[in-house]
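TASK: fixed-backbone design
INPUT:
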C-alpha cells in the first residue's frame, strides 16, 4: 500500500478524513486538496484519522502542517487521531506533539476540536 488513500466522512458537524498508505511527497497535494474541499464545503473542524498511515516523511509532516494551517486560516481547527507508533515517533522528534491536537480515537479528537472552538469563541477579541 504505497499510495495514500483518503476516505472522507462527515460525523455531525465534523469532517473526518481517514488516511491509509504513505504520507510523503507523492501524496501531499492529495491531502491538501481533500482538506481544501472540506473547508470549501463549510467544515471548520477536521479530524485526520491516521490509523492507516504506514509511513510519513518530512514532506508528509509538512503536508500535515499545511492542512492544520489551512484549517486555522479558515477559522477552524484540525486534529490528528489514532496515530501509529511510527508517526508518533516522528511527531516526537520534530515537536509535532506540541503543534497538533492529538487524540487516541476519532471521537476523542472530535471532542478536542469542539472544546477548542468553544474556548476560542470565549476568548476576547
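OUTPUT:
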Amino acid at each position: 500500500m504505497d499510495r495514500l488513500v483518503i476516505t472522507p466522512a462527515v460525523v455531525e458537524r465534523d469532517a473526518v478524513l481517514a488516511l491509509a498508505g504513505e504520507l510523503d511527497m507523492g501524496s501531499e497535494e492529495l491531502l491538501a486538496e481533500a482538506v481544501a474541499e472540506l473547508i470549501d464545503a463549510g467544515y471548520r473542524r477536521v479530524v485526520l484519522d491516521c490509523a492507516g498511515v504506514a509511513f510519513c516523511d518530512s514532506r508528509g509532516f509538512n503536508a500535515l502542517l499545511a492542512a492544520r494551517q489551512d484549517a486555522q486560516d479558515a477559522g477552524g481547527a484540525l486534529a490528528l487521531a489514532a496515530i501509529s507508533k511510527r508517526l508518533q515517533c516522528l511527531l516526537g522528534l520534530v515537536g509535532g506533539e506540541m503543534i497538533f491536537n492529538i487524540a487516541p480515537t476519532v471521537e476523542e479528537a472530535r471532542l478536542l476540536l469542539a472544546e477548542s472552538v468553544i474556548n476560542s469563541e470565549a476568548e476576547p477579541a
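COMMENT: Strands lie at 5-11, 14-23, 45-56, 77-81, 101-103.
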